[in-house]
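Practice problem: predict the structure.
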Amino acid sequence: MKTFISGKIHRICVTEAELDYIGSVTIDAEIMAEANIEPYERVDVANVTNGERFTTYALPGKKGVFALNGGAARLGRPGDICIVMAYQLAESFPGAPALIIGENNEIVERLHYPLTEPRPIDGPGIDVTVQ
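Answer:
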């Protein structure tokens, strides 16, 4: 068995940082569902703004919310842009949803890995191509 991506939320914006909460990240429930992320599922978070990376679990929240809770609140602040990734064990890659998030933490594009065409991601000269 190998570990593959099972869902990705790309460029979600931190709306809250709650240090006194017990832990986790709270994510808009609709976004979680479309990204194939279950409540209490383990996720990795990469903070694009400051370079921090951490592992925690996801909780469903209200529309537009992406909150860093507990110790994770020290790893980002409101306005930071993040990537959230969940994983699965499988013999071969079964595919996965990847959501591109825009202003107000709304889904602006729905992708599905593997990508069948070259696609620039986050800048010039960077693309993801599946052969």
